[in-house]
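Q: What residues go here?
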């Protein structure tokens, strides 16, 4: 059974699986979600074994997955889920802000990474954003000195996955034409993405955009 896309389920609650080995946190998470009319928890689990079968059985659209479940390697779990269910959206929850792990999880197909201390509204917004027609990656990490809330700058939530791809390739010194060939898009599309990136990051050049993106942990450093 394929995971339904949002267009196939417009008007229906977003179907969510919560996976966390701490029962109190998992129960609280489920209660928070169930209080929303447009969200529903179709299953919860304390381990990742059998998670793919659970996704298939429940036709879940979003999996909220704790990064630190014992006996589980989160990047492998994410890759297996997203390979088997391309329309599935996996959001990672963690008590840690390991940026290298964040990059690995996003590269494996996770659609977001949120620290467990994020406000309730941020978590709910991340779930809704994940199934939007033009979803964007959501990253909320503790970060000293960045904004009063202590979380990563909003630019991290505004760059689309494609814009990140373009900027990562630009950081590798590829030309617009080379980026277009790599992504199998028109060169004009690459230029449009770069214009959008410059505007979102307040950058004045490719180098400026790359530096700002690296400082904000949007793309990996070399």
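A:
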């Amino acid at each position: 059974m394929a995971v339904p896309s949002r267009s196939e389920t417009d008007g229906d609650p977003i179907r969510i699986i919560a996976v966390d080995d701490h029962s109190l946190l998992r129960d609280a998470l489920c209660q928070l979600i169930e209080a929303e009319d447009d969200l529903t928890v179709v299953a919860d689990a304390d381990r990742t074994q059998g998670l793919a079968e659970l996704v298939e059985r429940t036709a879940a659209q979003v999996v909220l997955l704790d990064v630190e479940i014992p006996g589980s390697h989160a990047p492998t779990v994410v890759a297996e889920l997203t390979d088997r269910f391309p329309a599935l959206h996996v959001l990672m929850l963690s008590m840690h802000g390991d940026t290298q792990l964040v990059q690995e999880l996003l590269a494996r197909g996770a659609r977001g990474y949120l620290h467990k201390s994020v406000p309730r509204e941020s978590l709910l917004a991340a779930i809704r954003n994940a199934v939007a027609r033009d979803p964007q990656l959501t990253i909320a990490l503790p970060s000293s000195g960045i904004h009063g809330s202590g979380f990563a700058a909003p630019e991290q939530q505004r760059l689309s996955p494609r814009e990140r791809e373009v900027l990562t390739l630009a950081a590798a010194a590829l030309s617009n034409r080379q980026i277009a060939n790599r992504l199998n898009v028109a060169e004009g599309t690459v230029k449009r993405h770069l214009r959008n990136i410059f505007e979102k990051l307040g950058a004045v050049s490719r180098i400026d955009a790359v530096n700002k993106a690296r400082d904000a942990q949007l793309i990996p450093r070399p």
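A: Context that may help when evaluating the design: The first strand starts at residue 14 and ends at 19. The chain has a mean pLDDT of 84.
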